[in-house]
Design goal:
The complex is a heterodimer. Chain A is of the alpha+beta class. In chain A, 31% of the residues lie in helices and 42% in strands. In chain A, a hairpin with a 2-residue loop joins strand 6 and strand 7 (121-128). Chain B contains 23 helices and 20 strands. The chains are: A alpha+beta, B alpha/beta.
């Protein structure tokens, strides 16, 4: 059964290791939804978070392939429901004087932060589950959205590894 | 005491430290410092090939025959890209190859310099690992590590890209005065290759239980048996349990073919009784194989009644192609040894006889007087079974796999996974250098031979006495066979003209014979064996001979084509 799965990969913080990992997934045609990469808690190591829509066996196969790469230190594959995932989006939007208050209302509703203001547009930051971010973007559809930058999800497995049925924060909103 | 070495000298020293005796390569601009240093290290033999692809295949052949790393060297750009097919071949068949390429100087990288190519990017998917050396200080450790990675676990090719200025950089090293390779001539197969973790005792117990209780068990042995040198363990397992043994294309010569428990090859061109046995089996013990699609046919219909025990070094192979009941991950020699400690003798005679009952006497499938079967039988006679055969890819490859009786370990070498036409001739050069004391035959079709026949010059210049056989049917025979079976006999682009191979041999200063009828076979093989140097024998075989049986691509193992399809009736 296909479902949302997370691959969390700890790997050497080198471009070449990153391309090896991504290349291994690409050439075996794994169903990747998003990839996010950034520094990890250990110096010299990066954390690569890969979200895929697949069955557990496929995710495990992907994990085994990644583990073979020199420079990949650790791979864990867990169902999205067994972890917490968040992504960040920056939205450059033009509201105009007449609708600016409306934009602020939406931002408030989504706990979004205004990062930059100019007469040409406003940059808003929102963070949450993918569904939450998508919901925010839909709420902005009535405005003139100039640009969207999304980070892709980062995720971390629950400390007790328990798989908790997803509630309102993801599927329900969609 | 320290001495000041150039990066290039250091590379040569590392090669000696790794026990390298021979390498295959081709010089060029970006690798010139290395070639400049090479004559200072007479313990390193360099074989100049005629095309870098051949260097990679020869290194691969050397590695497969010796179990040690094969080394190939090329310059940047086209030299490096020419290695690609050879590296992909080695990757698919798990051969430990270390490829060293020159690269443009560091300050030129990324500027599309002359003969610059991103060989790291190009070879990333077809190497086990690859590295661009950024500084001479990391050169020695990188090269040593390349050998370690190529050989450890499941072997594979590693490419080390060395910028020209790094080869020229000076570095202070401990003086060693090394002249000869260190620890050379060892048998690379004896090493235990470690997996990430040994099998769990519970899994071993479950596997032993399945083996003890199965009614219709089969052993399928693949390349892993050869790579691990697990011949004795495999044989013990078979003999103690009476379980019949199937050998995949690369598992051939992993188990003696005259053994009463040996069944033959499975898959697309496997014998009908072998494939039927798989379809009826209730247990398959897969040893060091990856259940390739040419072995399984349609995986959904593969061995529908069987549980599968998969003994495999590479965890990523487990469950990749077929679902597995018990996975035993690790070196198959070790795992078979552990299984043998717990397995009690049992008997599978009834099941074996059932399979033997499915056997058919080989039909008269090879039309014409000069049959592949006859040629290979004569070759076996004349070599007294004491030769290594390196085959190319196509119809002859299947005949060579099925019709020559392999009795000795690792005497059948071929490009299995990638199916690289042109492998045999350069591959055999490497095999022969690894086995200087026995005859090495490179058997090709007329198509594959023409892909790398320039390497006859290498054999002559380096005095490498490879014996070449060409099965000439005037077609790219395997493709023609598919066209005949599945494409309405439209022989599109498969008729292939050949030069006069005897004259070609003569032009290279090599002895050559053409065999037109069966009566000439023995004499020609004898003559080729008698000359001290390389020799070539061309066999004019039946043009439209086919390889039977054949499982159509995508079909299940239960659906073989066993004979000539009905002639086309004009509509």
């Amino acid at each position: 059964m296909s479902r949302a799965l997370t691959l969390s990969v700890l790997l050497e913080q080198e471009l070449v290791t990153f391309t090896r990992a991504v290349g291994a997934l690409r050439r075996r045609n794994f169903p990747i939804k998003s990839i996010a990469v950034g520094p990890s808690a250990s110096p010299g190591l990066a954390r690569l978070t890969i979200m895929m829509e697949a069955d557990q066996a496929t995710a495990d196969r992907a994990a085994r392939q990644l583990e073979k790469i020199i420079g990949v230190r650790e791979v864990t594959a867990f169902p999205a429901s067994a972890g917490v995932a968040r992504e960040l989006a920056l939205v450059k939007v033009r509201a105009g004087h007449e609708r600016y208050a409306e934009l602020l209302d939406i931002a408030l509703l989504y706990k979004a932060t205004i990062l930059d203001e100019s007469s040409e547009g406003t940059i808003v930051e929102v963070a949450g589950t993918e569904a939450f971010v998508l919901s925010f973007l839909r709420a902005l559809e009535g405005f003139e959205v100039l640009e969207v930058a999304r980070s892709g999800a980062v995720a971390i497995e629950r400390a007790n590894g328990a798989s908790i049925p997803l509630t309102f924060t993801s599927e329900a909103v969609q | 005491m320290t001495e000041l070495l150039t990066g290039a000298q250091l590379m040569c020293r590392v090669l000696l430290e790794e026990g390298v005796e021979v390498m295959f390569g081709y010089p060029g601009g970006a690798i010139m410092p290395f070639y400049h240093a090479l004559p200072e290290f007479p313990g390193l033999r360099h074989v100049l090939v005629r095309h870098e692809q051949a260097a990679a295949h020869a290194a691969d052949g050397y590695a497969r025959a010796s179990g040690r790393a094969g080394v190939c060297v090329a310059t940047s750009g086209p030299g490096a890209t020419n290695l690609v097919t050879g590296l992909a071949t080695a990757m698919m068949d798990s051969a430990p190859v270390v490829a060293i390429t020159g690269q443009v100087p560091r300050n030129m990288i990324g500027r599309d310099a002359f003969q610059e190519t991103d060989i790291l990017g190009i070879t990333q998917p077809i190497t086990k690992h690859n590295v661009l050396v950024q500084d001479v200080e990391e050169l020695a450790s990188t090269l040593h590590e390349a050998f370690a990675i190529a050989l450890e676990g499941r072997p594979g090719p590693v490419l080390v890209d060395v910028p020209k200025d790094v080869q020229n950089q000076k570095v202070a090293c401990e003086a060693k005065g090394l002249q000869e390779p260190v620890g050379a001539k060892g048998n690379g197969f004896a090493r235990v290759r470690s997996g990430r973790s040994g099998p769990a005792p519970d899994d071993l117990r479950e596997a032993a239980e399945l083996i003890a209780t199965a009614q219709r068990p089969l052993i399928m042995a693949g390349h892993g048996v050869v790579l691990a040198g697990a011949y004795d363990e495999l044989r013990c397992l078979a003999e103690r349990t009476g379980i019949p043994v199937i050998t995949t294309l690369l598992g051939i010569s992993g188990f003696p073919e005259s053994h009463p428990l040996h069944l033959g090859m499975p898959g697309m061109h496997g014998e009908v009784h072998v494939n039927r046995a798989i379809q009826q089996a209730d247990l398959i013990v897969g040893v060091g194989l990856r259940f390739d699609d040419r072995v399984t046919g349609n995986t959904a219909a593969f061995a529908p009644r069987a549980k599968i025990i998969h003994i495999e070094l590479d965890p990523s192979e487990v469950g990749k192609n077929v679902p597995v009941t018990v996975a035993l991950v690790g070196d198959c020699r070790v795992i078979l040894g552990e299984l043998l400690r717990t397995l009690r003798p049992r008997d599978c005679t009834a099941w074996r006889l059932e399979i033997v009952g499915l056997m058919k006497s080989r039909p008269e499938q090879y039309r014409g007087d000069l049959s592949p079967e006859g040629i290979l039988r004569t070759l076996d006679d004349e070599t007294e079974g004491r030769c290594t055969i390196v085959s190319d890819v196509g119809q002859h490859q299947m005949w060579v796999a099925k019709l020559y009786p392999y009795e000795r370990p690792n005497t059948h070498i071929t490009s299995g996974g990638l199916g690289t036409m042109g492998f045999a001739v350069p591959g055999a050069i490497g095999v022969r250098l690894a086995r200087p004391d026995e005859p090495v035959w490179a058997i090709s079709g007329d198509g594959g031979f023409q892909m790398n026949m320039q390497e006859i010059a290498t054999m002559v210049q380096e005095q490498i006495p490879v014996k070449m056989a060409i099965f000439n049917n005037g077609y790219l025979g395997m493709v023609r066979q598919w066209q005949q079976f599945f494409h309405g006999r439209r022989y599109s682009a498969t008729p292939i003209w050949s030069p006069d191979y005897v004259k070609l041999a003569e032009a290279y200063g090599v002895a050559g014979w053409r065999v037109d009828n069966a009566g000439q076979t023995r004499e020609a093989i004898r003559a080729a064996m008698a000359v001290p140097g390389p020799a070539l024998v061309e066999f004019m075989i039946e043009q439209e001979a086919n390889v039977f049986p054949m499982i159509p691509p995508g079909a299940s193992l239960s659906e073989p084509i066993e004979g000539e399809p009905a002639p086309l009736v004009p509509a």
